[in-house]
Design brief:
With about 190 residues, the chain is α+β, with helices and mostly antiparallel strands. It is built from 4 helices and 10 strands. It has a 5-stranded antiparallel β-sheet. A 3-stranded mixed β-sheet has the order 1-2-3, with no helix packed on it. The longest helix is centred in the middle third of the chain and has 15 residues. The protein is globular. The relative contact order is 0.15.
């Protein structure tokens, strides 16, 4: 979707308006007032300057419900389990993209976590439906960083965090390059 605009001020107005109402661009009944396809960038052309505004990154959504055995004595989900939910969402994402962890391991590549961070916002009780968003923050030659957000069904933000994974050759125990298929998945879910 391309919009040709010859006025920098008009671009700033369109972008500001889009920030407040992400489904509508512009204020007059022109083609710019159509719904936005979030899979395509919007490009504005100004003489000698090109502005490209990419829409929100694609995020994989994984849903789960805490099991009774995972609830602590206070009645909340134990804090050690959030990282397990991160892993479940990450595994589900690559599996649905046609590149399961078993295939990665068959290529003699393992992806151990080198760093993890979790910021807790709100507790989870038994039988709360959890919605986990996962997306890539970066894909480098030898490592990847995935970010996670967990929400309750009522949109309460439960926690956010990230994991950084190094690519290791399982035979030599040396760093190796991120597999091409995993790079493609990473670029698809890359935060923009």
């Amino acid at each position: 979707m391309l919009y040709f605009v010859n006025n920098r001020r008009r671009i700033e107005q369109l972008v500001a308006r889009r920030a407040h109402n992400p489904k509508v661009v512009g204020s007059n009944p022109t083609p710019a007032n159509r719904l936005i396809n979030y899979n395509q960038p919007i490009v504005f052309f100004i003489p000698n300057i090109i502005y490209e505004f990419k829409d929100k990154s694609m995020k994989h959504i994984y849903k789960t419900i805490p099991r009774y055995k995972d609830i602590d004595k206070m009645g909340y989900l134990h804090n050690s389990l959030y990282q397990i939910y991160f892993e479940e969402a990450r595994i589900d994402m690559v599996r649905k993209e046609g590149y399961p962890y078993s295939q990665i391991e068959n290529e003699n590549i393992i992806l151990p976590i080198s760093e993890v961070y979790i910021s807790y916002k709100s507790p989870v009780k038994y039988d709360d439906l959890l919605i986990i968003e996962v997306f890539f923050e970066y894909v480098k030659n030898f490592s990847i960083k995935l970010c996670y957000n967990i929400f309750k069904e009522d949109s309460t933000h439960v926690c956010s965090g990230y994991t950084i994974h190094a690519a290791i050759n399982s035979i030599t125990n040396d760093f190796c390059e991120i597999p091409e298929k995993l790079r493609e998945i990473g670029y698809k879910y890359l935060e923009k």
